[in-house]
Amino acid sequence: MIISNRNRLRRNAAAAFAVAIALSLTSCGSNESDSASDESATATTTVAPELGPDGQQVVDIIDKQMKALDLTGAVYGVWRGDEVVAVGAAGQSPVGVPTAPDMQLRIGQPMEPMLSTVLLQLDGEGVLKQDEPISKWLPDFPRADQITPKMLADSTSGVSDYVTNPDFLKQFYANPIKGFTAAELIALANARPPLFEPGKSWAYAHSDLVLLGEVLQKATGKTLGELLQTRILDPLQMKDTHPVLNSQMSGPILHGYTNERGMFEDSTFWNPTAFLHSGNMNTTVADVATWMRALTDGTLLSKEQSTAMLGPSTAGIGPFTKDKFFAYGVLHDNAWIISNPSYGGYHGAVFHDSETKTLVIVYVTLGQNTPDPNTNNAMPAGTEIATMLVPNRPPA
């Protein structure tokens, strides 16, 4: 089937995440020349990777998937607890420049549980209550008296996802560098009817994160960037992670490439406010690892809060069970926590197993001949690595 350009962002940014969840649940997520693309597909790692036990197998999997999917570049990190399995990079980024493991990239979905962490912190401090209606902060939003911050964190509000709105897709593809405001995105969300009554079902929606970010800002009088900086990034010493409200990135940069608009182009500086509060953050693989460890260890929350955040609070809602569910911005598949960020040529796969403390992080950028840019092209490598390391309990 031929997918129109208009539909590609929807598939990349929304459907890709929902598909990962569906798979998890049913298992029990500048133009370049042809020669440049071919070169990127066969380029070997220039910076020698840091290898531990099983590290060479990780490198082999990355190289295999680079060739199979015609990827331009990849950065990755794999650990068992504090033990390094493999940390490295492959390919080129930008085309012609060897990729390095410390390159900046767009974080995507792993930003979402950061908002939930701040929500729980503020709830514990009495600044806001996660179960009280958002009408206190957004009185003019439809059904605000029935929607709570926790519903927004869980994607159970029923608010339509603006990313699947054809008007958003038209605006975004006309000028992906322009960016969006929260008011514009909320208007696009409200342009279509809600999907269900608040709290009665589940549907992943970027709209929920826009609203949650606005609630956190209004409740504290601080910007979300300030809240994330002081409550998460500074305490964890994530010095290479920065919330951004424009296209800026600091070097070295893992360049994004895509053909979503019908041509192969450098999408590095597409404005990430198209995913405001749910992915407008630059980071590195090392900082993503720091965040995932803190999230799973409950470093920034009380024991009770962490248990609640990682517990099956949405079991019984929609398709979810106590073993396979999505809550507080986190997808659970038994002992695995999974993220599959995908935006503007950046595809990521993040897997963490709570039993073995295995952590797998892979971010890739697409090539001119990538077979399907509408699916997450980091997931094959991430899944294969996770399965190799935990063969008796592989992630879905």
Description:
- The chain is an alpha+beta fold.
- It has one domain: 3-Layer(aba) Sandwich (Beta-lactamase), CATH 3.40.710.
- The strands form 3 sheets. Strands 1, 2, 3, 9, 10, 11, 12, 13 and 14 form a 9-stranded antiparallel beta sheet that branches. A 3-stranded antiparallel beta sheet has the order 4-8-5. It has a two-stranded antiparallel ribbon with strand order 6-7.
- A hairpin with a 2-residue loop joins strand 12 and strand 13.
- The relative contact order is 0.19.
Strand content: 15-25%
Tell me the helix content: 25-40%
What is the name of the CATH topology?
Answer: Beta-lactamase
Low-confidence stretches: 1-45
Broad CATH class: Alpha Beta
Biggest β-sheet, characterized? 9 strands, antiparallel
Structural domain tally: 1
Overall pLDDT, averaged? Answer: 90
Question: How many separate helices?
Answer: 12
Structural class: alpha+beta
Shape: globular
The SSE string, one letter per element, is HHEHEEEHHHHHHEEEEHHEEEEEEH
Got a strand count? 14
CATH architecture: 3-Layer(aba) Sandwich
List the helices and strands and how they pair.
Blueprint: H1 5-26, H2 34-42, E1 50-51, H3 55-68, E2 73-80, E3 83-91, E4 105-106, H4 112-125, H5 149-154, H6 166-174, H7 182-190, H8 206-220, H9 224-233, E5 242-243, E6 257-258, E7 265-266, E8 281-283, H10 285-297, H11 303-310, E9 324-327, E10 330-333, E11 336-339, E12 342-343, E13 346-353, E14 358-365, H12 379-389
Antiparallel strand pairs: 1-3, 2-3, 2-14, 4-8, 5-8, 6-7, 9-10, 10-11, 11-13, 12-13, 13-14
Helix pairs in contact: 1-6, 3-12, 4-8, 4-9, 7-8
Keywords: Signal
Region (Disordered): 30-53
Signal peptide: 1-29
